[in-house]
Design the sequence.
């Protein structure tokens, strides 16, 4: 992507902003890690980790998807590469290619089963536009969207209100969204993917905490199977 675009993105992220990065260890396993952004001369930047989080067997060659928010609280995402590791809590990286918002979930989604409700409220109830509500179950989730199973197709594809019941920590999050794609499954069920259009920082952070908690649980379970 153009150098100016990368520079603008790096400069739009405030120091200390929470961020997510996907790192790969030398076994090929992907690890979703949370930390904080610290700016440098674009396209370079630093990612700061909590103690004892960085993998000891880090693959420094693999590309690293990165996601955060800018000064206006909008999603920013790009793929970066590792330049150096100054210490055991810091990586220096270089931004390479942007990631479209619709593709964020490809990198940052986590399998998570929980209750979800989708609602539609038209500006005015008419024969063509009526309020409706439908409950389902999530399949996976990220800070930018969710995939869920419902008993029917959504009658509308935009201006949808979502309510997601998170479990660790327990919190109900609310956001507006639109349908990215839907697929009919067997037994008259529908697999529907949503992208979040408007979501508060508090609710976005709650989703991130649930994602990381679920990842830790899945890793513990995986370890117990060997």
Sequence:
């Amino acid at each position: 992507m153009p150098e100016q675009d990368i520079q603008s993105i790096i400069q739009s992220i405030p120091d200390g902003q929470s961020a997510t990065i996907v790192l790969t260890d030398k076994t090929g396993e992907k690890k979703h890690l949370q930390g904080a952004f610290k700016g440098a001369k674009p396209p370079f930047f630093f990612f700061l980790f909590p103690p004892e989080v960085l993998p000891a067997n880090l693959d420094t060659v693999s590309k690293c998807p990165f996601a955060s928010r800018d000064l206006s609280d909008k999603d920013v995402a790009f793929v970066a590469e590792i330049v150096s590791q100054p210490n055991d809590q810091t990586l220096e990286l270089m931004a390479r290619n942007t990631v479209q918002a619709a593709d964020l979930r490809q990198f940052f989604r986590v399998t998570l089963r929980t209750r979800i409700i989708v609602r539609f409220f038209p500006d005015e109830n008419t024969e063509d536009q009526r309020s409706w509500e439908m409950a389902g179950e999530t399949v996976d989730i990220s800070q930018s969207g969710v995939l869920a199973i419902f008993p029917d197709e959504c009658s509308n594809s935009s201006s949808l209100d979502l309510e997601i019941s998170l479990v660790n920590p327990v919190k109900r999050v609310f956001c507006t969204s639109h349908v990215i794609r839907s697929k009919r499954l067997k037994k008259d069920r529908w697999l529907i993917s949503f992208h979040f259009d408007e979501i508060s920082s508090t609710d976005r952070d709650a989703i991130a905490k649930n994602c990381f908690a679920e990842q830790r649980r899945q890793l513990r379970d995986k370890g117990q199977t060997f």
